[in-house]
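Folding Query — how this chain folds
Tokens — whole-number codes for backbone shape
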Amino acid sequence: MPFYDNQELIDKLISIVGINKNAQGLPAPQNAQESDATNSLLKLITGLQKSLSATDKRDPRTAPVISHEGDVTKKLSVNSTSLESLGDLIRFLSNNKIIVGGKRVVYAKEEEKPQSDEYKPYSPETHTYGPGMRGDANIEFYVNPELLKEYVSYLQSYNAKNPIPLMEMQLKSIVGEINSDKDFGVSVDQRTQDQGSSLSDETYIDMTPKDFVGTQADLGKGSVQLFLGDIRSLDTLKGWVQKNGITSKSKEGQVGIENPNFNICLVLNSLDKRADFMANQSLSEEQKNIVAIYKRQVLEIAQQGKCPAFGGSGQQSQANSDMLIEKLVSEPPLSQADIDIGRINRFFADLESLMSNVPAIPQLKSRVDTEASALAQYMSMGAADTNFNLGWTAEAINTKIGNQHDPKVFQIVVGLLGAIVNDTASALGYFRAAYGKKDQRVNKLVAEQVGEGSYDTSSMYYANKRVIDKWKNTPVSNKPQ
């Protein structure tokens, strides 16, 4: 319970400082000095109460006030087990009676049903809250989608400042579940550090036209300012459209967002082309970064809006999708025996063919391609020498590093291996978010690959990371032995 809702606690505080809440003022001071001190204390408490008041207007872009019912001294923190799926997170929020902005996020069915229409019934398929209860869709909750969105956004912001690869992967999967649930009616931005979470919402992005027609004319300089906060999600983009009177071309001419013929995908397609056009200009490194964020955010929103123009080759026939899933399941990318870059590359090639309509997959594949290429440059036999047995010692790895037997180079090689494994684990999370509910083979694969938590010693991810960390912490010689 928040401080401002706990009247008993407030009364105790008032009594401690000698304030009679039934009187109109303070106990009579014994002298002027005592009077000044008491008045100062009263002003301090009054200011504190105002700042903590639930009715105090808060900047919506600041972090929400998060608390919980029960023992206020008990510290609660979400862990990897509670982030295995949306169902697990909802159960955590229910069990711990988590409060966001003064309201409970989730109520269990056994509790009194909330009267507010803001709460939606939800029956999750959870993964980890008990072997006998997995997949049980009969446990119902009442969820406030807007508060759930705030809580998940808060976790994303925390992870952006304190990066944990597994947490990022799990949050992306949960965001995918929320955005694909039509009953919730909310959209959470896939917000990670490299997508601009460290930049202000007031970061200038572009000056767009007011009337979009879907032709080259949309690439010209317009009169409407577009800021990063406007492209955080589909909801924020629609807010920008409405605020600025943006129109799209239709059979009946230019129409605004209130018209059923308004085409948000046409606007997004033009914004995407504007980002491409800007990327080909002479830009500073900072500007290049902003344009890259522009492009990624537009693609994320296009995915949320299910825009066909952004589907790419990922719109597979059912037969082709089944074939690709079968290939992905039959050759998992991570192994307890070795880190095989060739096998990981094949995984990403098939996954991109299946899921190129999910912007993060081509991005992850491109990053792994870059990491693998850099790794090959350090190896004595180049790309043909990028299979790393997990039973090798650090010195054995060092002997494979060409003629550059420098401990610093060894650390770069091991760091690249860690980055490739982390990116592969992230891609597996997207795979499960997209196909896990429809295909149990996918759920089984990802559970074996990534496990049920960050310290699941049975997972392939843990086996890889454990050995990589061991190599990283082992000194190597300047010359191989």
Q: What stands out?
A: The CA atoms of residues 189 and 408 lie 38 Å apart. The first strand starts at residue 66 and ends at 68. The chain has four domains: 3-52, 66-185, 199-310, 314-472.
